[in-house]
Amino acid sequence: MSAHPQISWTEGEQTHTLRWQSENGTAAPKRVVVADDRMSADVAYRLVCEGTALLWRGDFQNARQLLQALARRIDRKPTKPRKQVAPVPTPIEAFHLHRQAQSQRARTLAMLLLPFDDNYVMPLRRAPDVRQACNEAYGAADGAFVVAMRELLGLIGAHEWRKKGVEIHALGDRIHPHYGVFSPVRGEYVQLVADAPLPSTKLAFDIGTGTGVLAAVLAQRGIERIVATDQDPRALSCARENIQRLGLSGQIEVLQTDLFPQGRAPLIICNPPWLPARPSSAIEYAIYDPDSQMLRGFLLGLAAHLTPGGEGWLILSDLAEHLGLRTRDALLEMIAVAGLKVLGRKDVKPHHPRAADVDDPLHVARSAEVTSLWRLTAA
Questions:
Q1: Domains of the chain, with CATH numbers?
Q2: Which residues, listed in sequence order, are joined to residue 204 by a DSSP beta bridge?
Q3: What's the confidence (pLDDT) of residue 147?
Q4: Helix (H, G, I), strand (E, B), or coil: what is residue 27?
Q5: I need a surface site. Which of 165, 209, 297, 309 has the fewest CB within 10 A?
């Protein structure tokens, strides 16, 4: 796919072409028709299911209602014959079926498209002012384009999260996540870092810092100097902004590097993506770690970057184990192969709503999930 993919459609007996915008790298739809307030939800649903995208020319709020109507039709459970009994899927089958369904759902809902003029202005009735949200996610405006409404709503939601922030009990303050940076809404893993006994207060490395939340917690616990690393430019910008706002820039240095900075530290922490699966978009790299690459990289490099007697803190959920994506024995083998030993482990049960949602396709695994802080050192 080219650096600037194009989308084409016919309108007023003329062919029009604009830049296609997709943060997830979704290919531009090949079939596009113009739609407005006169199109019914049933017709729209039939078209998008056939792979035809709808370029919206009507009222923005009506487009939002149409998207909700499409989602309801997608989520409607099929009627099954009474005597038909579907076999219960294994946890790993349930996971893959869930991801497949979510991917198909996302592709279908991404078929409702919105046009943008220069400077991030939508030429639609009752369109909100989204210029700041677009600037935060896309950078400076670069001409007219077309984007999926679903993506735009994600930008708006991320902008609101960035404005109000996420309350972090362990900090007694808020962290403000940027678009595309994993939000620390799972507070239990942050609390583990806040409660674990520190091996030293001199120096720590925070690998894959993201929003900078764990580096900030360590700084508030009195660690004199922290080096926080990440590869993603959005994460680096987010971490620097949060750290500056919290008044911790004198203690925390943010570096762009792959995993470890140079040197050794008595404490090195890492909260890698918890599920060893292939991401379907760039944003999902915060959740899915293909072939456990980041986890393996952290473990294999840890001993060489710890000072004698130093500790590595691995923050990891066992959800992958309950889904059949990784076994506990495989994790322990990774630790041993890396020349490490386990000093201890602190566990906590998650409290997020999905853990108690019996209608969640992954409820059995989520209800059994435990998040752990593994204290590791060189063997």
A1: 6-160 (no CATH), 165-378 (3.40.50.150)
A2: 226
A3: 97
A4: coil
A5: 309
